[in-house]
Design goal:
alpha+beta, Elongation Factor Tu (Ef-tu), domain 3, globular
């Protein structure tokens, strides 16, 4: 783990920073049935995914539990999924099992692509690479050097994601280093945590229904689209008001993805799970945790055991639905 330095964190708030992102893989789906095939597999609308937007989505087991989460968009010849690298192969393999007679082919695009994250005052350097910059969240623009997507702000600082051919992107990086601070990929993980956007990794596969990681709030679920694996369970959770668990933002001395949480009032059984973790600026870690809403009301929450490190809960940049 390559923890960000104090100057890396400062650059987000006071200047601009870019981060080549090695923690992501990519799956390309090509063929005339690519959109219809994927539409029937994931939580969001693919049929109406046009070239100017990206969408957050998840891929569920038949029990409605997330096997992976990703940002998806159209390239000139494919639909691309940007996904945690440690689940990329498993998700690609499972999706491929259901292609059947559809004219669609999945491939691992990870070796040929590179993703770079940007945060802070980065518009001027980016304008040297792209003629236009996307303004709205998940708006996408394409240029000679790939795709640029506006992603949710973190700490009220704008963020962008640039994905292109690896050799082409790497050729542009020296120019960026003249204008922006280069930071480790782990800083992007910390920013994602503060944006409240959970990422499914190997440690948390099949642990959460999409609403438990706030995908309904973040626009990662389309409740009007047709069936997909787990759809009935996801819909039932939504319309019967049974969502009693959510993702929250917290700070603690230590935590690891997949670690269980324990509440002081009921230490004998877990009340949640750590999803994502990143080093915090002043020591310790910041994390996204899935937790029973009732456990947030009072008492203390500990990581790993009833006497493990205590968590301090912080406000998310968005609100839970009003009926929660």
């Amino acid at each position: 783990m390559n923890s960000p330095t104090a100057s890396d964190f400062d650059a987000v708030s006071n200047a601009g920073v870019f981060m080549p992102l090695s923690q992501f893989g990519a799956i390309d789906i090509k063929g005339e049935d690519a959109a219809s095939f994927l539409h029937n597999q994931v939580t969001n609308d693919v049929q109406h995914l046009d070239a100017s937007i990206a969408r957050l989505a998840g891929y569920c087991s038949p029990k409605g539990r997330l096997l992976g989460s990703f940002l998806m968009w159209r390239t000139p010849d494919a639909i691309r999924l940007l996904i945690a690298q440690d689940v990329q192969a498993a998700v690609q393999k499972r999706l491929s099992m259901f292609v059947l007679r559809a004219k669609a082919k999945l491939s691992d695009a990870t070796p040929e692509m590179l993703a770079v994250g940007f945060a802070g005052d980065v518009r001027k350097p980016l304008s040297g690479i792209f003629d236009a910059l996307p303004d709205g969240v998940h708006v996408k623009v394409d240029g000679p050097h790939g795709s640029l997507i506006r992603v949710p702000d973190a700490l009220r600082r704008p963020r962008f994601l640039w994905v292109g051919l690896k050799a082409d992107v790497e050729a542009q990086l020296p120019k960026l280093e003249e204008k922006l601070k280069r930071a480790p990929a782990e800083l992007w993980d910390w920013l994602d945590i503060h944006a409240g956007e959970a990422r499914i990794t190997q440690a948390t596969v099949e642990q959460f229904v999409p609403q438990m990681v706030n995908f309904d709030v973040l626009g990662g679920i389309n409740f009007k689209k047709g069936c997909y694996p787990g759809q009935e369970i996801v819909a039932r959770s939504q319309y019967r008001g049974t969502i009693k668990r959510r993702t929250a933002l917290a700070h603690g001395a230590a935590a690891t993805p997949g670690a269980e949480l324990f509440h002081s009032a009921d230490p004998g059984q877990p009340c949640g799970m750590v999803i994502n973790v990143a080093a915090a600026p002043n020591g310790g870690v910041d994390c996204l945790v899935e937790i029973k809403l009732a456990a947030l009301d009072n008492g203390a929450v500990h990581v790993g055991a009833a006497d493990g490190p205590a968590l301090e809960f912080l406000p998310l940049p968005y609100a839970y639905p009003a009926d929660q």
